[in-house]
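U., I forgot to send this yesterday:
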Amino acid sequence: MKKKSGSPRDYEVFEKELLPHYRNLYYYACKSIKDPDLAKDVLQDTYARAFQYIDSYEPGTNGLAWVFRILKSTLVNNIRRGKSRGRDDLINYEDAETLGLLSNYSKIGSYYESGTVSKGASDKLVTAFNTLSVKHKTVMILSELYGYNYSEISKILDIPKGTIMSRLHRAKKALRGKLIELGNDD
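Result:
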């Protein structure tokens, strides 16, 4: 029989290691399901399940990867339910199919606002970045913006490390090519 969650330690671990990822997971859920209110519901279900099974989480490990797997499962279940209820209009199939992670453009924007990248260059970077496939955007975001290494990305996405390395290489190559192409338009 499953142990009931709710000890002070459970609340502390949940609050310190899982809740900080809410915003990033919400962005991902919004991108996968086109309805922000439905995305909030999915995230609420995700966090309810995360708390229910908190005893299976190893404190100090990658909380994002652990709660993301729950989100991924919840999204798949909701997408299946939505499709069966005739709500295909709410599903972004390109993103839901990949179920990558964190299309959080807010961090990208913060680089532009900080003056690190000029406005013209930032527009070209965003344009080039948006030409990448979802699976390539996902590994770029996790690697370049969030600083995860190949092994961590592999665990988060539940994809072999070699696939991560290949996708990241191809994403960078495609991004570089698109930036060169856009640079010649001036």
